[in-house]
Design brief:
Chain lengths: 307, 255
């Protein structure tokens, strides 16, 4: 009799457990279906302002910054290349918020600045680009907080030149970057090229002359001497084109040669080409050197619609 | 001197037999080793995650040991009355207090060295060297542990173990908030608030002066002169607190 009672008790207990498990599974699925939108899609995450959180980390701010960056990194694969801008916008916003938070908590966090420069800007097939302004906002902090890291100014300059075509600003940031220890030589050369293209010849010449004065190796000195000469050529060509424009305005027809500009008093002297060639004035009013090409940055022909 | 060394040696032997030390050491070693896995979630620079987690775990474990054990070796003895047979011998109370403290600090230093060795091994596995700033950060953490141990001994000299532990943890947290208190003092409009904040700032230990963890993980160089002056500040503060603890304990009626 006791064994039957025990068996009934055991079966009842097993049945109760099974019913409880099934009910929990069903309710879980139901709760998941009815769940509200994730908090991060409604609110700023993390909710505590970075400057307050920095104090509340009790000396562990870089650890908090690491985990915020890791969260931002996990968002990158969620944003697909073929995603509609409206669908990508909440991910972009959250990623920006996390990265901005990360560098606010630990202002010296070079890795977060660099990740922001790489991850925030993204292009669409129809020539639009998103996240550039946010990336620049973070990198501007990076330039302020990590002036010792040449990559901050370089990345900011890259975004300014490639997406915004703001060559003077890009040249200024690259020039700052070129003066930092560890900056590769191409940064300074690129800065002078962008400055020349953006019309900041004085900035480009000052940078090139400063780099020439600092250069120790013969090959580096030659490289910078060539760049100073190229900038002098650009200066002369602009002066010739300027004089040709004024000549045309005064006489109503274009000048035939550089010598004609000198003879008419629009140029004080015939400029000397530093590479040994000579300057030629074309029929359309543009000038060129017979020995070298004009200083221009190539590959910056893309026109983006910045959002 | 012999009595002092005997008490310090006894403290080390007693603590080495305890389970708390090994549990905390194991937890820290696992946490530091686990940083290798977490580092794989990041892009590029693993060293930062490893250093942040490693030095962070070292600080948590060291502060816990300094406070919990520091309180236990004085307040625990007083509460259990086990201090009485020791003091019944011709032994000044300062010898007891400073000897116990010295034994604890020695153990904390050995413990910190063990964690640095694990951190060094993890960095080696990931292909990174142990940078000088990391060594400087670890050295200043040891000074912080010594300071916290002195604070724990001070509170233990006049309070119960639970209260002394709570006070010492409060000092740990407030000590890391002090730069903000100084910033508040600089910005406060009211002269009373400014003077009060400045007074608290000068009275409490500025543990952020001993915190080079962010510098280590951001690979920022720190001048050797700063490390020496910060370490000197920490040691001098710990000595002052310990002297106060000796004074309090020597006047306390233990019966």
């Amino acid at each position: 009799m006791r064994s039957v009672r025990d068996a009934v008790r055991g079966t009842a207990a097993a049945l109760s457990i099974a019913i409880a498990i099934c009910t929990a599974a069903a309710l879980r699925a139901s709760a998941q279906r009815r769940a509200p939108r994730p908090v991060e899609s409604e609110l700023d995450i993390p909710p505590i302002p970075g400057d307050v959180a920095r104090a509340l980390t009790f000396g562990f701010r870089s650890l908090l910054a690491d985990f915020t960056l890791l969260q931002a990194i996990q968002l990158l694969p969620v944003r697909h290349g073929d995603m509609a801008p409206e669908a990508a916008a909440p991910i972009d916003r959250r990623m920006f918020r996390l990265l901005d938070y990360s560098v606010e908590v630990d202002r010296k966090f070079g890795g977060a600045y660099r990740f922001a420069a790489a991850a925030l800007p993204h292009e669409t097939m129809d020539g639009k680009v998103f996240g550039v302004v946010n990336a620049m906002q973070i990198l501007e902090k990076g330039v302020r907080e990590r002036p010792d890291d040449w990559r901050m100014g370089f990345l900011l300059g890259f975004l300014q030149s490639y997406y915004l075509r703001d060559f003077p600003a890009a040249a200024r940031n690259l020039a700052l970057s070129a003066k930092q220890p560890g900056a590769p030589p191409f940064v300074g050369l690129l800065a002078t090229r962008l400055a020349a293209q953006g019309g900041e010849l004085q900035l480009a010449t000052s940078l090139a002359e400063a780099m020439l004065a600092q250069a120790n190796e013969e090959s580096t000195r030659k490289e910078w001497q060539d760049r100073v000469d190229a900038l002098h050529v650009e200066r002369d060509l602009r002066a010739i084109e300027d004089a040709a424009q004024r000549y045309r305005e005064v006489h109503g027809f274009p000048a035939r040669s550089v010598q004609a500009l000198v003879s008419a008093g629009f140029l004080p002297v015939f400029p000397r080409e530093p590479h040994g060639g000579r300057y030629v004035l074309e029929g359309d009013g543009t000038a060129r050197s017979t020995s070298t090409e004009r200083l221009r940055a190539y590959g910056l022909t893309n026109q983006f619609e910045v959002h | 001197m012999t009595a002092f060394l005997a008490i310090a040696g006894n403290t080390v032997r007693e603590l080495v037999r305890g389970k708390l030390l090994y549990n905390l050491l194991l937890f820290t070693a696992l946490f530091v080793a686990g940083s290798l896995l977490v580092a794989q979630l990041t892009v590029g620079n693993w060293v930062r995650i490893i250093l942040d987690m490693g030095l962070g775990a070292m600080e948590v474990a060291g502060a816990l040991m300094a406070i919990v054990i520091g309180v236990g070796i004085v307040a625990g003895e007083i509460q259990r009355k086990t201090i009485l047979p020791t003091l019944a011998k011709p032994l000044p109370r300062w010898t007891f207090c400073v000897g116990r403290y010295a034994g604890l600090v020695l153990l904390l230093a050995v413990n910190a060295l063990a964690i640095v060795a694990v951190l060094r091994a993890v960095l080696w596995l990931a292909g990174y060297p142990l940078a000088i700033t990391t060594a400087q950060a670890a050295a200043l953490l040891c000074v912080e542990f010594a300071l916290l141990a002195a604070v724990a001994v001070l509170f233990a000299s006049f309070s119960t173990p639970i209260l002394a532990g709570s006070y010492a943890f409060a000092v740990f947290f407030i000590g890391h908030l002090l730069p903000d208190l100084r910033a508040f003092a600089d910005k406060a409009q009211s002269a009373t608030a400014r003077n009060l904040a400045k007074g608290f700032y000068l009275l409490l230990p500025d543990l952020e002066l001993l915190n080079l963890k962010s510098h280590a993980s951001n690979e920022l160089a720190v001048a050797g002169s700063y490390v020496w002056s910060a370490a000197g500040y920490g040691i001098a503060y710990a000595a002052a607190v310990l002297a106060l603890a000796v004074l309090v304990l020597s006047r306390r009626d233990l019966n």
